[in-house]
């Protein structure tokens, strides 16, 4: 019996708003529960009200069942009537609350609604759909059940017979993913296609075609095969926007102003808001239409194979998992994910990966019968939705067939589209702080309301007037235009990026780019040129690698090396042009051979073959000899994980077939017979890789002549790629792009770390890192060679200082475990030239370099050392796509520890008390901001994992990453960072300006309330629209500074520096406004008018406070519109500068010599003394000088920073990266160069030669 602890108890249930005391318990994920005994599961699960879906993934959901409650429903609508519909508006904002108020928890089997909590704390509710099938018991199939299966044993026979006639399908959809009810487990499970749990053999055996009944049933379960981005109508968008809290707040504000007789101001705000709303609706719909056009596929028909081998044409929207489709010979756009079962296909996957080079897809082979099929593992056999099939290759009358494995939003394309429609919450500190600060402003507004109520009541105002004035305080302190103003900097930056050929599909990432601390680069095609030049070949002679030959045509035409170069590739002819991988192109073009696509004259090879290669000129061109032609019988495509590719070929007239393979030298060497690997293999490999050449090894073997063509199609890859004979090396020259070195130097000068993650050889990667400046001349490289446990020996790390000088010295070969399991196979490891030195000789001037294999060992056996490796690691070679993503994740974890300093605690408590889900927003608060730049394809995972992923692609926009650059070099990286810094500083400046603008007006109004007066209608209009709106929207127009500096812009609004800046500016504003008012009162000509209420707006008090506050708004706009080092100087922002000058001139005119008609409109009093007017201007000038001195000199100074750190008791850095960096800088005994570190259960131990082991530190 399984322990109840696996399910939890009532006390174990989360103590949030959706916890209950009904005695139900938390249910595990379907994959876990399905392993239990059926009876045990049924007895427990049918009473459970909640379960976990997608356990252990980013899409993990806690699912809670609810059903209607008549009593709660009546009570709810009673409250709606009592609140005059206000409750409905609140429920619109918080739909999960409505579920709780109108429904009660119940077992999942009875639920009509489910509430879902995601891993980020967000709550969602979905309706459970129950479909009654009319066919009765005949319709029972997968995911369809009869109700009687849930009936207890005490039900009579009549009821049972009645129930059996009712057949149901029950499910709910969440974010385009369907979760269906599994009656056998009494729980929901995610609807999957054929991508989980099936072996390759099962797919071959089971899926030969569906019957029409099976297809119709699956269509009911899976729904239509379509990725539809719904574009909402303008009417729907209008009501959604108008019910947004921001617009509801504005509507309430307009009503309030109208009731207070501010008709002109209210009318102008309505006009501006309507204009803003119209633009927003247009942009929202335009973005939706753009995304729909990007992912839309034309509905066409496709040929499917039925169960009885009949064929039928069906709409692509009716495809379901299990359908067998025939791929048209002229190609098509894939409408689903399908695994290729026969024939080959040439595919352009640029839509998904950003990689424009066509790839060849080969059929899933029966030899992989026991291997579990997954689209990611078997992507070379999988045709992905949205990709373009350029050509197909088939044998004779055999059609190119594929089995549909996923449809709709479950496909790879659908998953990417979902990531755009439902992005993860971006836990950027700036956004959390802005929300906390708005909450803080709300608290200030509350204090202001209390004060204004007291003053107004003390002055004898009516209750209605007191309510209006008190509520008006809220509209002043929390400015309605703040959300719109916050996006200005990002919008300008996105526009500038687009002009430079950089497209962004996630604008919030632009601000995050301003905080980048590290950028990971792919090597080939990113740092180096995409194209490779063949430098030469190094064949094997007398068991040694001979002298390099730079002209391959000097070798005999029928030599195995030349045949390998002619056949071992994935090239194809498209529109009469040879296309394929650039490496393969250069290799093939260097030997002067040609490719012929399949034709009628292929019977001479005894079987039909897809491709023929032959030399342009050859010595066998005589009438009595057959032409020298080679047929490529089968291809095993290149795999990043396997680091190789191979082909089966047959030479015309030969008795049997041959195998040719090429790939990473260290990998090919492990697959070759030991005695065929040249004696000087390691010396030559080191010599070429140290010079930065890309080295490819070539091998071959002959197959048994009895193997037929059909047997060749079923032979396993492991059998083919074993016992090879080493042929030699291909030396490819991969030059750095001219822009690479300057960009790397610029990034390093700005103290932005640069890291290389590549699939290439480690010595080649180190050489390129030296050439481009990632590793400087005085810095050394320590090779981290990690090995997994071997029998009784634990996992270990060997630390070796690399000798990066080009040398022919021979080192003792090191052994690495081969993929081969036979004892007679050699265990070979790529070699590095290293020397053993004392660790004191490298302290402070070293970096780590390691391979993907070592990285994997560190993850599993040395997790305590991995952060140190990540801090000093520069070169990560032989990395698989998944390992690149894991590297980015590990680098992101080097961020801040999630602890709050004293100044943040109060604001955090306020933030949480107001109901904001603070816990869901701190996801990435402490993450180390990491960027990734690659050319798509194998980098897609890392590009999406990084906070700022930049894909170098010719496509205008790709779903592969947030940023796409049409400029095919890394110059786009500093551009994105500079624009990100400019946008971030602009957002800071606009936010601080809008916050202080509200506080300036808040202070002004409180002063005037005290004097029983207030600004006039046109005064508010002049301040809010003419001054504030103009400068707030032009502040962000300043372009990014052309140079990167070492210091990053601040990322926290509630840091002591910003808090002090805002508070001191508020005090200064208050002092000068109060000073101007007191100076007014001291004048002999001043007389306070007698008035009964605050409706008299034409007073000396309103005039003077209006004058001084107008200067303060302009002053704040100037000092918060900062220039270098993140933005260009203010004078380069011509529209903003002109606006400031004109507004300043207009304000001076109003103070010194207001025209009578302007004074009449604004209700300005006539000041009798001109000297007094000049004095007001002088006070404003002094205010300006004090504010500039404070903001430009005092707050940025190091002395102030030290004082702030002292006050916040900051002695140690909170940044995990800095802590580790400090430890490494101060350590005299780490890294233990020349020593061996062993993995133990309690920590990492290292030993040096025969010395006792001790803890590494």
TrEMBL record:
- What reaction is this protein's catalytic activity? spermidine(out) + ATP + H2O = spermidine(in) + ADP + phosphate + H(+); spermine(out) + ATP + H2O = spermine(in) + ADP + phosphate + H(+); ATP + H2O = ADP + phosphate + H(+)
Q: Where is the P-type ATPase A domain?
A: 301-420
Q: Which Gene3D superfamilies match?
A: Calcium-transporting ATPase, cytoplasmic domain N, Calcium-transporting ATPase, cytoplasmic transduction domain A, HAD superfamily/HAD-like
Taken from the UniProt entry, a GO cellular component term is:
neuron projection
User: Region labeled Disordered — which residues?
Assistant: 806-826
Q: Does the keyword S-adenosyl-L-methionine apply?
A: no
Q: Where is the composition biased (Basic and acidic residues)?
A: 811-826
| Alphabetical list of InterPro entries matching this protein | ATPase_P-typ_cation-transptr_N, ATPase_P-typ_cyto_dom_N, ATPase_P-typ_P_site, ATPase_P-typ_TM_dom_sf, ATPase_P-typ_transduc_dom_A_sf, ATPase_P-type_domA, HAD-like_sf, HAD_sf
Q: Can you supply a Gene Ontology BP term from the record?
A: protein localization to lysosome
Spans traversing the lipid bilayer: 74-93, 234-256, 262-282, 437-457, 990-1009, 1021-1044, 1059-1081, 1102-1121, 1136-1158, 1170-1195
Lipid bilayer topology: Multi-pass membrane protein
PROSITE patterns attached here? ATPASE_E1_E2
Question: Broadest EC class?
Answer: translocase
Residue ranges occupied by any Cation-transporting P-type ATPase N-terminal domain in the UniProt entry: 205-257
| Listed GO MF terms | ATP binding; ATP hydrolysis activity; ATPase-coupled monoatomic cation transmembrane transporter activity; metal ion binding; P-type ion transporter activity; polyamine transmembrane transporter activity
Mind telling me which PANTHER family this protein's record contains? CATION-TRANSPORTING ATPASE (PTHR45630:SF8), CATION-TRANSPORTING ATPASE-RELATED (PTHR45630)
- NCBIfam families in alphabetical order: ATPase_P-type, P-ATPase-V
Summarizing the function annotation, the protein's role is:
ATPase which acts as a lysosomal polyamine exporter with high affinity for spermine. Also stimulates cellular uptake of polyamines and protects against polyamine toxicity. Plays a role in intracellular cation homeostasis and the maintenance of neuronal integrity. Contributes to cellular zinc homeostasis. Confers cellular protection against Mn(2+) and Zn(2+) toxicity and mitochondrial stress. Required for proper lysosomal and mitochondrial maintenance. Regulates the autophagy-lysosome pathway through the control of SYT11 expression at both transcriptional and post-translational levels.
UniProt protein name = Cation-transporting ATPase
């Amino acid at each position: 019996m399984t322990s109840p602890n696996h399910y939890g108890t009532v006390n174990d249930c989360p103590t949030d708003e959706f916890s209950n005391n009904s005695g139900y318990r938390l249910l595990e994920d379907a994959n876990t529960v399905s392993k239990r005994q059926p009876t045990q599961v049924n007895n427990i699960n049918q009473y459970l009200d909640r379960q976990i879906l997608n356990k252990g993934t980013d899409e993990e959901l806690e699912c809670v069942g609810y059903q209607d409650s008549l009593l709660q429903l009546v009570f709810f609508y009673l409250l709606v009537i009592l609140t005059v519909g206000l409750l409905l508006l609140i429920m619109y904002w918080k739909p999960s609350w409505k579920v709780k108020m109108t429904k009660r928890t119940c077992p999942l089997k009875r639920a009509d609604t489910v509430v879902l909590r995601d891993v980020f704390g967000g709550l969602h509710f979905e309706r459970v759909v129950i479909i009654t099938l009319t066919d009765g018991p005949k319709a029972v199939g997968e995911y369809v059940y009869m109700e009687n299966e849930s009936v207890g044993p005490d039900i009579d026979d009549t009821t049972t017979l009645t129930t059996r006639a009712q057949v149901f399908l029950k499910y709910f959809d969440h974010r385009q993913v369907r979760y269906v009810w599994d009656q056998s487990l009494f729980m929901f499970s995610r609807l999957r296609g054929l991508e989980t749990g099936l072996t390759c053999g099962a797919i071959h055996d089971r899926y030969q075609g569906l019957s029409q009944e099976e297809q119709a049933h699956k269509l009911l379960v899976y729904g239509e095969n379509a990725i539809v981005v719904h574009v909402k109508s303008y009417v729907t968008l209008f009501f959604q926007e108008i019910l947004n809290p921001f617009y509801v707040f504005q509507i309430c504000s307009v009503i309030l102003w109208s009731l207070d007789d501010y008709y002109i101001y209210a009318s102008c705000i309505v006009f501006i808001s309507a204009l803003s709303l119209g633009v927003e609706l247009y942009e929202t719909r335009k973005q939706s239409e753009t995304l729909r056009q990007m992912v839309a596929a034309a509905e066409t028909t496709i040929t499917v194979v039925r169960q009885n081998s009949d064929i039928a044409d069906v709409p692509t929207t009716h495809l379901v998992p299990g359908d067998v489709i025939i791929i048209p010979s002229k190609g098509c756009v894939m409408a689903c994910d399908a695994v290729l079962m026969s024939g080959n296909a040439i595919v352009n996957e640029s839509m998904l990966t950003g990689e424009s080079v066509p790839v060849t897809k080969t059929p899933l082979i029966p030899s992989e019968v026991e291997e579990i099929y997954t689209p990611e593992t078997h992507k070379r056999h999988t045709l992905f939705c949205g990709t373009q099939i350029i050509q197909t290759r088939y044998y004779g009358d055999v059609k190119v067939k594929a089995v549909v494995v996923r449809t709709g939003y479950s496909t790879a394309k659908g998953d990417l589209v979902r990531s755009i429609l439902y992005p993860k919450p971006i836990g950027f500190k700036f956004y959390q702080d802005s929300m906390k600060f708005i909450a803080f402003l709300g608290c200030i507004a509350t204090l202001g309301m209390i004060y204004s109520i007291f003053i107004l009541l003390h002055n004898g105002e009516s209750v209605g007037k007191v309510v209006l004035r008190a509520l008006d305080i809220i509209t002043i302190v929390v400015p309605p235009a703040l959300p719109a103003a916050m996006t200005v900097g990002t919008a300008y930056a996105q526009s500038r990026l687009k002009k430079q050929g950089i497209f962004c599909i996630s604008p919030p990432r632009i601000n995050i780019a301003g905080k980048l601390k590290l950028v990971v680069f792919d090597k080939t095609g990113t740092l180096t040129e995409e194209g490779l030049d063949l430098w030469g070949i190094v064949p094997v002679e007398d068991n040694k690698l001979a002298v390099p030959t730079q002209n391959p045509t000097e070798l005999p035409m029928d030599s195995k090396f030349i045949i390998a170069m002619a056949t071992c590739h994935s090239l194809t002819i498209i529109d009469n042009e040879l296309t394929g991988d650039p490496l393969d192109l250069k290799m093939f073009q260097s030997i002067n051979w040609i490719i012929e696509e399949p034709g009628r004259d292929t019977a001479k090879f005894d079987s039909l073959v897809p491709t023929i290669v032959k030399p342009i000129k050859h010595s066998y061109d005589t009438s009595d000899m057959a032409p020298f032609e080679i047929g490529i019988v089968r291809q095993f495509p290149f795999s990043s994980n396997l680091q190789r590719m191979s082909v089966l070929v047959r030479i015309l007239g030969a008795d049997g077939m041959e195998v040719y393979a090429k790939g990473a030298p260290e990998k090919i060497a492990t697959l070759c017979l030991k005695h065929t690997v040249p004696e000087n293999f390691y010396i030559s490999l080191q010599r070429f890789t140290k010079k930065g050449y890309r080295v490819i090894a070539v091998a071959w073997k002959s197959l048994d002549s009895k193997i037929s063509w059909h047997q060749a199609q079923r032979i396993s890859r492991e059998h083919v790629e074993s016992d090879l004979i080493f042929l030699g090396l291909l030396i490819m020259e991969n030059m750095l792009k001219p822009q690479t070195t300057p960009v790397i130097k610029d990034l390093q000068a700005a103290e932005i770390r640069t890291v290389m993650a590549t699939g290439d050889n480690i010595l080649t990667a180190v050489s390129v890192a030296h050439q481009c400046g990632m590793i400087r001349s005085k810095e050394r490289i320590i090779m981290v060679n990690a090995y997994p446990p071997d029998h009784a020996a634990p996992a270990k790390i060997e630390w070796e200082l690399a000798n990066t000088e080009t040398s022919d010295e021979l080192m003792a070969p090191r052994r690495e475990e081969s993929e081969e399991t036979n004892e007679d196979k050699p265990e070979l490891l790529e070699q590095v030239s290293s020397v053993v030195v004392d660790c004191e000789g490298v302290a402070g001037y070293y970096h780590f370099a390691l391979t993907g294999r070592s990285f994997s060992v560190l993850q599993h056996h040395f997790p305590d050392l991995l952060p140190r490796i990540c801090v000093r690691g520069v070169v990560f070679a032989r990395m698989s796509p998944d390992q690149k993503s894991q590297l980015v994740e590990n680098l992101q974890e080097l961020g801040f520890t999630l602890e709050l300093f004293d100044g943040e605690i109060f604001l955090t408590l306020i933030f949480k008390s107001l109901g904001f889900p603070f816990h869901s927003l701190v996801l990435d608060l402490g993450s180390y901001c990491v960027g990734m730049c690659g050319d798509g394809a194998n980098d897609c995972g890392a590009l999406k994992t990084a906070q700022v992923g930049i894909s170098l692609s010719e496509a205008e926009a790709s779903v592969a990453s947030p940023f796409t650059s049409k400029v095919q070099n890394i110059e786009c990286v500093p551009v994105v960072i500079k624009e990100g810094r400019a946008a971030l500083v602009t957002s800071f400046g606009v936010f601080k300006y809008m916050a202080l603008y509200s506080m300036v007006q808040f202070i002004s109004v409180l002063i005037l309330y005290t004097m029983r007066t207030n600004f006039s209608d046109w005064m508010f209009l002049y301040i809010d629209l003419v001054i504030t709106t103009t400068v707030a929207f032009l502040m962000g127009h300043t372009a990014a500074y052309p140079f990167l500096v070492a210091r990053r812009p601040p990322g926290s609004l509630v840091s002591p520096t910003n808090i002090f800046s805002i508070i001191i500016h508020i005090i200064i504003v208050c002092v000068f406004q109060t000073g101007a008012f007191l100076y007014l009162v001291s004048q002999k000509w001043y007389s306070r008018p007698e008035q009964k209420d605050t409706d008299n707006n034409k007073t000396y008090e309103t005039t003077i406070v209006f004058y001084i506050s107008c200067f303060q708004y302009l002053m704040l706009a100037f000092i918060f519109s900062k220039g270098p080092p993140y933005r260009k100087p203010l004078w380069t922002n011509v529209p903003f500068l002109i606006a400031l000058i004109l507004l300043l001139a207009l304000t001076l005119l109003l103070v010194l010599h207001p025209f009578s008609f302007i004074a009449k409109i604004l209700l300005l009093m006539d000041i009798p003394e001109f000297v007094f007017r000049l004095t007001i201007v002088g006070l404003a000038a002094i205010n300006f000088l004090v504010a500039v001195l404070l903001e430009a000199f005092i707050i940025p100074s190091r002395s102030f920073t030290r004082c702030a750190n002292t006050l916040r008791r900051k002695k140690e850095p909170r940044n995990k990266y800095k802590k580790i960096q400090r430890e490494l800088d101060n350590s005299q005994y780490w890294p233990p160069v020349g020593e061996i570190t062993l993995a133990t259960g309690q920590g990492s131990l290292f030993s040096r030669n025969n010395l006792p082991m001790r803890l590494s530190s």
